TrEMBL record:
Signal peptide positions (record): 1-29
InterPro entries for the chain: Aldolase_TIM (IPR013785), GH (IPR017853), Glyco_hydro_27 (IPR002241), Glyco_hydro_27/36_CS (IPR000111), Glyco_hydro_b (IPR013780), Melibiase_C (IPR041233)
Keywords, sorted A to Z: Disulfide bond, Glycosidase, Hydrolase, Signal
Name of the protein described by the UniProt record: Alpha-galactosidase
E.C. designation(s): 3.2.1.22
Origin species: Lupinus angustifolius (Narrow-leaved blue lupine)
């Protein structure tokens, strides 16, 4: 081939790539803070990058500017299922404000399935159920926006939603336009009645339709992990469910945590693994179990979407959901998903989960999944610290520094099914960034 022809071919290919990137609204994403910074003396072991592998993150991500940290808010499904109406949604918005939860970041008020009528209107448009949402979704959106909050809605990449309301498959543009005209800020997009069409074909059209509206709308994929969305959804949505539905039990919560853990290397600012919404406060788990659920969801950078009735919170539930130190782990700008790094005891039920944070810190959870109280140890070799490193350890549930000079490992006694969550920070003053 002639040199000139080669050159013009490569210019052409370049142009096509640029056009493709623009049309699908994805862009190369970079972390705000590099994973590792250099020090006068090394703090982290040479295997740090292997333990906290992020190599699969960020080749291309949606460039809608959202999800720089995992989304926070509330969703109607886990507590209300189909028993929703505009009063419940408004009262929930009010309660997010009066409890202070909105102030600490829970800003999305997300309506799940069952908001729409069973059939589209004569023009083919979705219609809010006139019995339960008589004022319409636009009025509700105005109410929620008036409180300084954001509103989410739900649809399905299939012929029907899971509760057999009209789905958006082949109606993507009309529905996205309608959602945008109502002022919707967030779409959860489900997977029922999908006609056997692969998710990779069904989810991008809604991304493009949302993008074409010109309104910035968070796009939350809910294909239950069936087609390993971590492998492809970074170019499609801001988060993707990695598992089947959670239920309000220890067995479900622990199973889901382990399934979501597998995909840690793929998450980061712009696109997160979603192990499903919180069950904290719904009554099926103990205080310790809910504390573990919240700690691990925060550590693994899961969306923090409250799934209980925030109009009737117990003091314990509010204490868990409003732990600002735990939330700060979830919302840390480094955006690296924490993961299970070490397990000992019977069937490995004494677990250490950990993840890097900005500012050369580590979040470490000691999670006792055994049936009896246990002393759990996090050795520096397992969490990726150099063995001579001296760290201070802050307990995020006790809200205090428990030691300023832990060396080579840290241990604590943890009650059955409870999880402690700590931040480890270098205690030696000479460790300054170069
Ligand atoms: C599916 C989803 C749930 C919820 C229900 C609603 O099961 O995974 O999160 O949205 O549908 O019908």
């Amino acid at each position: 081939m002639e040199k000139n022809q080669k050159q013009s071919n490569s210019v052409f290919i370049h142009l096509v790539v640029v056009l493709l990137l623009c049309s699908s609204s994805v862009s190369v994403s970079e972390r705000i803070v590099p994973l590792l910074q250099s020090y006068e003396k090394p703090i982290f072991r040479s295997n740090f990058q292997t333990i906290y592998d992020t190599s699969k993150y960020g080749v291309f991500h949606l460039s809608n500017g959202l999800a720089q940290t995992p989304q926070m808010g509330w969703n109607s499904w886990n507590f209300f299922a189909c028993n929703i109406n505009e009063t419940v949604i408004k009262e929930t918005a009010d309660a997010l404000i009066s409890t202070g939860l909105a102030d600490i970041g829970y800003v999305y008020v997300n309506i799940d399935d069952c908001w729409s009528k069973a059939t589209r209107d004569s023009k083919g448009q979705l219609v809010p159920d006139p019995k339960t949402f008589p004022s319409g979704i636009k009025a509700l959106a105005d109410y929620i926006h008036g409180k300084g909050l954001k509103i989410g809605i739900y649809s399905d990449a299939g012929a029907f939603t899971c509760q057999v309301r009209p789905g958006s498959l082949f109606h993507e543009n009309d529905d996205a336009d309608l959602f945008a005209s109502w002022g919707i800020d967030y779409l959860k997009y489900d997977n029922c009645f999908n006609l056997g069409i692969p998710p990779k074909k069904r989810y991008p059209p809604m991304r493009d339709a949302l993008n074409a509206t010109g309104r910035t709308i968070f796009y939350s994929l809910c294909e239950w992990g069936v087609d390993d969305p971590a492998l492809w959804a970074g170019t499609v949505g801001n988060s993707w469910r990695t598992t089947d539905d959670i239920n309000d039990s220890w067995a479900s919560m622990t199973t889901i945590a382990d399934l979501n853990d597998k995909w840690a290397a793929y998450a980061g600012p712009g696109g997160w693994n979603d192990p499903d919404m919180l069950e904290v406060g719904n009554g099926g788990m103990t205080y310790e179990e809910y504390r573990a659920h919240f700690s691990i969801w925060a550590l693994m950078k899961a969306p923090l979407l409250i799934g209980c009735d925030v109009r009737n919170l117990t003091a314990e539930t509010l204490e868990i959901l409003s732990n600002k130190e735990v939330i700060a782990v979830n919302q840390d700008p480094l955006g690296v998903q924490g993961r299970k790094v070490y397990a000992t005891g019977k069937d490995g039920c004494s677990e250490v989960w950990a993840g890097p944070l900005s500012g050369h810190r580590l979040a470490v959870a000691l999670w006792n999944r055994c049936s009896k109280v246990a002393t759990i140890t996090a050795p520096w070799t397992a969490v990726g610290l150099e063995s001579g490193i001296r760290v201070s350890v802050r307990d995020l549930w006790q809200h205090k520094v428990v030691t300023t000079d832990a060396v080579s490992s840290f241990s604590a006694s943890v009650n059955a099914h409870d999880s402690h969550l700590y931040i480890l920070a270098p205690a030696t003053p000479s460790y300054s960034v170069q």
